[in-house]
């Protein structure tokens, strides 16, 4: 290079380069070719010094092209105004620092940049292309402004330390698919993307030190970290993602070696997709708002969560929250959350596995159906204080669930719609104390340690308890509604046996079935209340005859009147005593004549009456004396009464003994 060809600013830079002295040339033009030649060895080194290009404030004319060059010196061009986009394609360089410069773009595909790439505060009117590049230090774009459809194209980028976009304004897409970041990737405070397009495409990225898209971060369009692997933790706390007609966050099959934080004021317009994601720590949605009306606000099926899912307090979702086949070590806490998907599924938890408890309590509300089917919860399932609403449909479908604790729908729980629990095993109490349900309550095929209905329980529509089994029935009989089905409902004991008439009123609420009466009688016998058990079985026979044919009903009335179907044996004794007394008096006053006067034994009116009343036992009086006239009709009536009494007593005793 001929020194005489250099302008005054270029000459100042020429003199400063060997000693690495900074040169500030506000607005002065400097040819890019001069800079390139110095970096490539046109300016000899001074002995004992390390050259460095350190220029600020200049206007760089022409194109700075270092393609496939090997540059051993740091390149620092800060606050400069580049006429054309620099090109570093395939180059091997030291530090490249263009901080606070205005640059039309940057081409550095397959470049190896040692010591870091600093573009902090730059304004770029064209894209940055870094596909396959390797930055051995930190790559810093904090505060950078880029205007381009594909603002950063860096598939396969390797950054040994941090990749920083904090407070950047990226009017276009950041694409870093398959990149490898040795430190952290930070976009806190950044604004990225364009509406309806893509904001961050980081599919398959590996970030060893953690990913942070935290407070102040705005994404316009789809943000994708699909198949990414993130060390330590992944943070979206306070972020705002907007893609109303599509996916706002695509984190499908994301792996986080730590926690995933989507909380702290996070908002998303569009679907949040976490299907198949895996995290060793916890997942938090506290103070998050997800909005995707008519679609899935959160699609998080097939997740594996290592340390609990927490969406409390302040979690709000408009659209379906879909957590099917998700496995959680720890608890799922949705206390105080507000879900809204009217007329459809608000919360889907099919095949959920939870090693702790599932809690939707303390002000939790859902407008739409909650589906918990074929799930296993090792702790309790809690809805106390929750408000569920789905008028005309189901509010809760809890089917084929196994719980290691209770199902708590107590303490102010309200439901507007049908509540259905089927084929579910509950290790502790199924509780409806202080509950209001304005809809049918279906409890079919349920197994529970106890069932609690309290004095403040309000059940406004039908209740179905068929084929349900509980250990202890702890209820208030008059709290059950008029429409009640209990056929096949079994329970081992009653918390409070109560007067038997209250229990009979409970059974009278439904059409006659024999099993509920047999069940209640068996429980009374286990409690030692044999008299109450007999009252229940007598009530059963009385309700049964109302549906029988006339002849059978008349025979039933006779059994009831005489011996109470065998459950009132003292009545037979009273009837026998009354007939015996009447017969003894009548036949004493008017002794019947003997068949053979000379051979007849002495007449005894008492024994003669016994002979008439008892159809099998004979005292020799009936065969020796024959009544005449009215006495004959009286004797016939007593014989008939004796047969009836004997038959009914035998049938009643047989029935009673068979129940012992």
Automatic annotation (TrEMBL):
Source species, domain of life: Bacteria
Protein keywords: Membrane, Transmembrane, Transmembrane helix
Protein name: Membrane-associated oxidoreductase
Transmembrane segments: 572-590, 602-621, 633-653
């Amino acid at each position: 290079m001929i020194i005489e060809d250099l302008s005054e600013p270029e000459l100042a830079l020429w003199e400063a380069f060997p000693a690495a002295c900074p040169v500030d040339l506000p607005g002065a033009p400097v040819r890019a070719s001069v800079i390139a030649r110095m970096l490539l060895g046109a300016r000899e080194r001074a002995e004992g010094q390390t050259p460095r290009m350190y220029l600020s404030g200049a206007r760089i004319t022409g194109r700075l092209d270092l393609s496939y060059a090997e540059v051993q010196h740091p390149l620092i061009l800060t606050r400069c105004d580049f006429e054309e986009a620099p090109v570093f394609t395939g180059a091997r360089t030291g530090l490249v620092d263009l901080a606070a410069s205005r640059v039309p773009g940057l081409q550095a595909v397959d470049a190896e940049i040692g010591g870091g790439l600093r573009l902090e505060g730059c304004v770029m009117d064209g894209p940055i292309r870094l596909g396959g590049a390797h930055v051995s230090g930190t790559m810093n774009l904090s505060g950078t402004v880029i205007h381009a459809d594909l603002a950063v194209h860096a598939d396969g980028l390797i950054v040994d330390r941090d990749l920083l976009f904090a407070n950047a304004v990226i009017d276009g897409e950041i694409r870093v698919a398959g990149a490898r970041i040795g430190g952290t990737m930070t976009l806190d405070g950044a604004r990225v993307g364009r509406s309806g397009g893509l904001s961050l495409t980081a599919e398959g990225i590996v970030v060893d030190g953690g990913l942070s898209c935290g407070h102040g971060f705005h994404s316009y369009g789809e943000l994708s970290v699909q198949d990414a692997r993130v060390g330590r933790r992944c943070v979206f706390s306070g972020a705002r993602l907007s893609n109303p007609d599509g996916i706002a966050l695509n984190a499908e099959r994301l792996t986080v070696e730590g926690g995933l934080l989507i909380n702290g004021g996070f908002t998303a317009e569009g679907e949040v997709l976490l299907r198949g994601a895996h995290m060793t720590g916890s997942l938090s949605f506290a103070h998050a708002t997800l909005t995707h009306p008519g679609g899935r606000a959160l699609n998080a099926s097939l997740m594996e969560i290592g340390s609990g899912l927490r969406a409390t307090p302040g979690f709000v979702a408009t659209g379906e929250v879909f957590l099917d086949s998700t496995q959680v070590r720890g608890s799922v806490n949705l206390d105080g959350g507000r879900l809204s998907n009217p007329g459809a599924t608000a919360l889907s938890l099919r095949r959920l596995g939870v090693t702790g408890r599932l809690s939707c309590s303390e002000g939790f509300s859902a407008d739409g159906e909650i589906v918990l089917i074929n799930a296993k919860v090792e702790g309790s399932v809690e809805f106390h204080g929750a408000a569920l609403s789905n008028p005309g449909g189901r509010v809760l479908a809890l089917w084929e669930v196994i719980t290691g604790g209770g199902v708590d729908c107590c303490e102010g729980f309200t439901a507007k719609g049908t509540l259905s629990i089927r084929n579910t095993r509950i290790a502790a109490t199924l509780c409806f104390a202080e509950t209001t349900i304005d809809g049918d309550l279906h409890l079919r095929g349920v197994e529970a340690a106890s069932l609690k209905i309290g004095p403040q329980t309000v059940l406004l529509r039908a209740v179905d308890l068929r084929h349900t089994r509980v250990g202890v029935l702890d209820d208030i009989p008059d709290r059950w509604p008029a429409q009640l089905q209990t056929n096949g409902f079994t329970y081992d004991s009653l918390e409070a046996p109560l007067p038997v008439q209250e229990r009979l009123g409970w059974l009278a609420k439904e059409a006659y079935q024999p099993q509920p009466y047999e069940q209640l009688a068996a429980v009374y016998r286990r409690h030692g209340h044999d008299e109450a058990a007999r009252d229940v079985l007598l009530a059963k026979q009385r309700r049964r005859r109302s549906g029988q044919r006339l002849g059978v009903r008349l025979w039933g009335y006779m059994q009831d009147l005489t011996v109470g179907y065998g459950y009132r044996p003292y009545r037979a004794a009273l009837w026998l005593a009354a007939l015996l007394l009447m017969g003894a008096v009548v036949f004493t006053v008017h002794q019947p004549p003997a068949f053979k006067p000379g051979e007849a034994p002495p007449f005894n009116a008492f024994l003669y009456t016994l002979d008439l009343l008892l159809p099998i036992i004979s005292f020799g009086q009936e065969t020796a004396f024959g009544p005449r006239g009215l006495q004959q009709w009286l004797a016939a009536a007593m014989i008939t009464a004796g047969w009836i009494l004997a038959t009914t007593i035998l049938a009643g005793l047989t029935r009673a003994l068979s129940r012992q």
